[in-house]
Amino acid sequence: MGQRAALVFSNITIQQFSILSAKAQAAGIGLNGNSGTATKHGIEVAWNYLPETEVLTLQCLRTPFFVKPEDVEARIQELVKETVNA
Asked: In whole angstroms, what is the distance from residue 10 CA to residue 35 CA?
């Protein structure tokens, strides 16, 4: 399977990124810092947050065979939308 396209979210404030990081931390996924990678249960994601431009990039790098990357991406989009619209 080829590399998945990154999900790019604009107008993500520092406060919103902090909330998203806290949600990830509560789920056991350590989003430490403005960029990096994290893995849980075989799902690996990468992120890069640029506070000066308020752009957050998230990418599903790997999933176990029983999890569709599309499902991971849909959940990411849902969490970002919930946070932005809160």
From this structure: 16
